[in-house]
């Protein structure tokens, strides 16, 4: 009998415990290591858990003939604290998502249209690449340089899922040639010819 009373009292004492089901981002607050502060639950609506931004193709009229449309926490506050986010890749024929890295997340890529040659470089400098067709998946481990290139004569579309609401993004070419990283230092640290470095800076808008 005492055991039954104890169990009943335990159930009653825990039945009113507060469980935080979600933490829709309050984007007016500052982002910290754990994400954004939570939006007051009274102001949360169904729309906070829906993001239509990946339903339309991105504009591929640019230097890389490709577009990345993110659904990170900054665009989709509902993923705050959930450890996942997404993006849409539109790659025109001849287009490329240049070598880049996501410092804060692993990536799972699903091809939904066309063919994409994708790959990554391991820390042992081994290249793992594959030409993917519709319905095929590829994973890119966190922090490793990777790329996606349209394969074939038709447009390619893919969706990426990340293991963080804020995966981060750094594109190698832009870091080198669209920044104020000085030409002498780039030449010294990459062994590239200074004439080529200056040419690439002129194309991508870098200085120094």
Q: What does the secondary structure layout of this molecule look like, with pairings?
A:
Blueprint (H helix, E strand, L loop, with lengths): L1 H13 L51 E6 L13 E7 L4 E6 L5 E7 L2 E6 L5 E6 L4 E4 L5 E5 L5 E7 L7 E2 H6 L5 H8 L3 H11 L4
Antiparallel strand pairs: 1-2, 2-9, 3-8, 3-10, 4-7, 4-9, 5-6, 5-8
Question: Would you mind describing this structure in some detail?
Answer:
There is one protein chain. The longest helix has 13 residues, at 2-14. This protein is an alpha+beta fold and 208 residues long. The termini are far apart. The chain is globular and about 75 Å long. A hairpin with a 5-residue loop joins β5 and β6 (127-132). Helices cover 18% and strands 27% of the residues. It has two domains: 53-168, Sandwich (Jelly Rolls), CATH 2.60.120.10; 171-208, no CATH class. The mean pLDDT is 91. The protein has a five-stranded antiparallel beta sheet, with no helix packed on it. A five-stranded antiparallel beta sheet has the order 6-5-8-3-10. Pfam families: Cupin_1. Residues 52-198 form the Cupin type-1 domain. Mn(2+) binds at residues 100, 102, 107, 146. GO terms for molecular function: manganese ion binding. InterPro entries: Cupin_1 (IPR006045), Germin (IPR001929), Germin_Mn-BS (IPR019780), RmlC-like_jellyroll (IPR014710), RmlC_Cupin_sf (IPR011051).
Task: Summarize this entry quickly.
With 208 residues, the chain is α+β, with helices and mostly antiparallel strands. 18% of the residues lie in helices and 27% in strands. Strand 5 and strand 6 (127-132) form a beta hairpin.
């Amino acid at each position: 009998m005492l055991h039954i009373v104890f169990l009943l009292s335990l159930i009653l004492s825990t039945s009113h415990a507060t469980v935080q089901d979600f933490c829709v981002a309050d984007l007016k607050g500052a982002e910290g290591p754990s994400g954004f502060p939570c939006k007051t639950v009274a102001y949360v609506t169904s729309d906070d858990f829906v993001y239509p931004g990946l339903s339309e193709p991105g504009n591929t009229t640019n230097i890389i003939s490709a577009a990345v449309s993110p659904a990170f926490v900054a665009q989709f506050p509902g993923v705050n604290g959930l450890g996942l986010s997404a993006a849409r890749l539109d790659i025109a024929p001849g287009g490329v998502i240049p070598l880049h890295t996501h410092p804060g997340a692993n990536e799972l890529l699903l091809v939904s249209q066309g063919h994409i040659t994708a790959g990554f470089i391991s820390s042992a400098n081994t290249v793992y690449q594959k030409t993917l067709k519709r319905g095929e998946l590829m994973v890119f481990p966190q922090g490793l340089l990777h790329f996606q290139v349209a394969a074939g004569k038709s447009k390619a579309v893919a969706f990426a899922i990340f293991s963080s609401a804020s995966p981060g993004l750094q594109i190698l070419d832009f870091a080198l040639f669209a920044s104020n990283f000085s030409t002498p230092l780039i030449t010294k640290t990459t062994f590239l010819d200074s004439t080529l470095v200056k040419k690439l800076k002129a194309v991508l808008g870098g200085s120094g």
